[in-house]
Design a protein that fits this description.
Strand content: 25-35%
Order of helices and strands: HHEEEEEHEEHEHEHHEHEEEHEEHEEE
Structural class: alpha/beta
Number of strands: 18
Number of helices: 10
Helix content: 10-25%
Distance between the termini: 60 Å
């Protein structure tokens, strides 16, 4: 340790006394001596790379390993991806999702719906022919194709204890499936309500109906009518509610939650929320000079896509940052959950944010 202490002191001098005495300051000498010895103790061990944490990987190249159709009506495919380089994938837990960068440059988010103990990532994608093209491109993937994946990330946390009601609508079941499997595994008191247009439109129904029938309820619009939040939550005796599905379902559950006996509500949208309290404004795209009118009930992203279909976007809910654009003129009304106060001074997320008044000029 003595050699280590001496090595710290090479080329270093203690500042002179603060009262003008030319000798080194006594207090500083004592402090630096103590710190030198402390750092020497910390430095006494030898480095072993086997104890080092793995490098943080921000993006991975994955290869499609399996492709399975799990619903023919309103087609849904289950896609299982494996690491292209053979390096183990980052661990994940129920509620997490991945961002997929497709060959076209599109970026889309999908809930992981496989088994966290597997060495693969599995997602399920419903085909939306008149959507933004992401689902069409995912459905076109074949085994052996490669994509770039970021994550996994968690915007829909699951607490595996206590009592829980799971409410899923259509493809929203992908986020809920791993949660229910985990709840069954740890012996939670759980129930699942699964809603959709018809039984033929519901993916994973065979697995779900193999579970305890007393804990699973399936509602279909063609037989039972569209369900409202008060009917979904009416017999709760407590616990948490986990909801994932289309915006109308989430909105009706949120409205009914305060009058229920549930203690916590967690939800995740698979579609953009409706625009509330919007005011019409104009957006100018600086590259072309085009001026786009954004109606009061429409997002800037929707309006811009009419004239610039290739504009980047993903979540459409203001948290992923894919649609971030530099603001050259005007004052945004920020409605996102992503940008820092400093970033809000020069950027906006066009999927949710609007104008505080007047025209906004964007670097597009």
């Amino acid at each position: 340790m003595t050699k280590a202490v001496e090595s710290f002191r090479v080329g270093r001098t203690i500042p002179p006394d603060l009262y003008g005495d030319p000798v080194p300051d006594q207090t500083m000498s004592l402090v630096t001596d103590a710190l030198d010895k402390w750092f020497a103790l910390l430095d006494a061990g030898t480095y072993s790379p086997e104890h080092a944490a793995p490098a943080v990987v921000h993006a991975r190249s994955l290869t499609l390993e399996r492709r399975e159709v799990v619903c023919d009506d309103q087609p849904v495919v289950r896609l299982t991806f494996a690491a292209t380089d053979g390096v183990p994938l980052a661990a994940w837990s129920p509620g997490m999702h991945i961002d997929v960068r497709l060959p076209s440059g599109r970026r889309r988010q999908y809930s992981l719906c496989g088994d966290p103990s597997d060495s693969t990532y599995t997602v399920a994608v419903r085909l939306v022919p008149d959507g933004g093209g992401g689902s069409t491109e995912m459905h076109a993937l074949e085994p052996g194709d490669e994509v770039t994946v970021l994550g996994p990330r968690n915007g829909f946390p699951f607490v595996p204890q206590g009592q829980a009601l799971f409410v899923a609508g259509g493809i929203g079941i992908t986020a809920i499936l791993p949660m229910v499997r985990a709840a069954r595994r740890v012996g939670m008191d759980w129930r699942l309500i699964y809603c959709g247009r018809s039984r033929a439109s519901l993916p994973f129904l065979d697995e779900i109906e193999s579970w305890n029938s007393k804990r699973v309820t399936v509602f279909t619009d063609d037989v039972d009518g569209v369900q409202i939040g008060s009917s979904l939550l009416h017999d709760l005796t407590g616990g948490a509610v986990y909801c994932c599905g289309p915006p109308p379902m989430i909105d009706t559950v949120r409205t009914a939650f305060d009058d229920s006996r549930a203690t916590h509500l967690y939800f995740e949208r698979f579609s953009p929320p409706p625009v509330r309290g919007g005011v019409e404004f104009e957006v100018q795209l600086v590259e072309s000079g085009t001026v786009v009118t954004v109606p009061a009930d429409t997002t800037a992203l929707q309006a811009i896509r009419e004239v610039k279909p290739d504009v980047a976007y993903s979540c459409r809910q203001g948290f992923c940052g894919t649609c971030r654009v530099r603001v050259l003129h005007g004052t945004p009304e920020h409605r996102d959950d992503r940008l820092t106060p400093e970033e809000r001074g020069r950027e906006m997320l066009i999927c949710v944010s609007r104008s505080k008044g007047g025209r906004i000029v964007l670097d597009l």
